[in-house]
Amino acid sequence: MIPIFQFAFGAAAALVFMRQRRAYRRALRLGAATLETLLNAIDANDEDTGRHVRRVAQYALELADAAGLSEHEKRCVERVSLFHDIGKIHEALFDILHDQTKLTPEAWKAVRTHPKRGAEVLDPLCAFYPDLYVGVLSHHERWDGTGYPRGTKGLRIPQCARIVSIADAFDAITHSRLYSRARSLRAAREALLAGRGTQFDPDLVDLFLSPLVQEAVAGIRIAPGGRGKKLNRRGDRVQSAPDLIFRWRPAKAARRSPRRQPRTAS
Ligand SMILES: [Fe+2]
Fold first, then answer.
1. What's the total number of domains in the chain?
2. Does the residue 265 lie in any domain?
3. pTM exceeding the 0.70 threshold for the entire prediction
4. What is d(CA 93, CA 260) in angstroms, rounded to the nearest whole number?
5. Which residues are CB-neighbours of 96 under 8 A, at least 6 positions away?
6. CATH number reported for the structural domain that contains residue 198 in this entry
């Protein structure tokens, strides 16, 4: 009698475990799908921003890798990179950011609201990705505490935001925007050095400018599909920046999904 009872109890426990595991995987897929949808929304609203955030994610991941971050921490860096500027697609900022003239002080004041606006957009995802809200909110904080929106200082700024801040500045300097022209790699390196210890985490700047990371960054900049606008075989215009795969998606589900196919043309 006792062995039968033990068997029944064991079978029930295994069933509960399997159900919980299935529910957990489903929740992961749902979270990943939600983020992909948001990334699609960024692309649909402003393809330049879509390309910018992907490049920033690639640079930031190289820096995170060199800094010895764990896989979990690197995924956080990737997410914050991809959504750091989501606040810029807000209706209140769209016209300002797409105006080719130089930004007025009032316009700059409005633009500086984008970290807060972005964090608010992502707030419902806090339960899935606890670091996303504060990472996006903090990506314009400065090492010396003079950044925005909260004036957070030094190591109190989340590490993912300190990494994204460097990658973001590097991309902003080396790629043209509506209101600024691209400058050379050398100019970008000089700007990072100038901000070392004031705008940026000094240790992370040193790491980003190390030969190992710079070699990887140069590889990203010249990777196939990394320049210009390209067409796929059907003649549709596709993202020209290197694309990223949402690596936190369970491998089995990713293989089944057609979205696993890279969207970039090589
Ligand atoms: Fe930003």
1. 1
2. no
3. yes
4. 32
5. 103, 107, 110, 111
6. 1.10.3210.10
Cα–chain center distance at 260 = 18
Give, as residue ranges, everything with CB less than 5 Å from ion ligand 1: 85
Task: Please check whether residue 266 lies inside any domain of the structure.
Answer: no
Give, for all 266 residues of the chain, the pLDDT tens digit.
567 778 787 888 888 888 888 888 888 788 888 888 888 889 888 888 888 999 999 999 999 999 999 999 999 999 999 999 999 988 888 888 877 777 888 888 999 999 999 999 999 988 889 999 999 999 999 999 999 999 999 999 999 999 999 999 999 999 877 667 788 889 999 999 999 999 999 999 999 999 999 998 887 765 544 434 444 444 444 444 445 555 444 444 444 444 444 333 33
Q: In Å, what is the CA distance from 147 to each residue of 69, 83, 94, 187?
A: 25, 19, 22, 22
Residue 74 annotated in active site: no
In a domain, 216, yes or no: yes
Domain span including residue 221: 2-260
Assess if residue 230 is contained within a domain.
yes
How remote is the CA of residue 87 from the centroid of ligand 1, in Å? 8
Q: How far is the CA of 5 from the centre of ligand 1 (A)?
A: 60
Q: Residue 183 in contact with residue 127, Cβ under 8 Å? A: no
